[in-house]
Amino acid sequence: MRRRTNGFIYICDRCWFKLDVQCSLVPEILTHEGHKHRLILSYTSFEQSCSSCGDRRNGVFRCTNCEFALDFKCVTLPRTTRYKQHEHPFTLSYAVEDDSGEYYCDICEEEKNPNHWFYYCASCTYLAHPKCIH
Among 36, 61, 96, 118, which is least packed, fewest CB within 10 Å? Predict the structure, then answer.
């Protein structure tokens, strides 16, 4: 799903289909910590919006009980990560626990959509977009 990789990939020479090893290991039906219902991989002729980042894709993991959907990029985000210029680890967060109404990425300093997932360092109250931290 248009994701960069630095590892091995599977390639079909006939149709030019490429699949990295990490994505090949993702099951078609899964339970994700960021959502209460099961998600099923679905491909449609129209683009669907990812509930985590807002990107639109033809292939997403969709909830059959509600309008929630995740693209491959967000389904495979690591639960914890590090940032080169920060001493503490970051944890993937699914909801804002602050009622200030102001949410900014501490890396790019742009506003963060409060409905989208983000990485958070609780020790420093440091917030970052997933795209900025990777």
Answer: 36
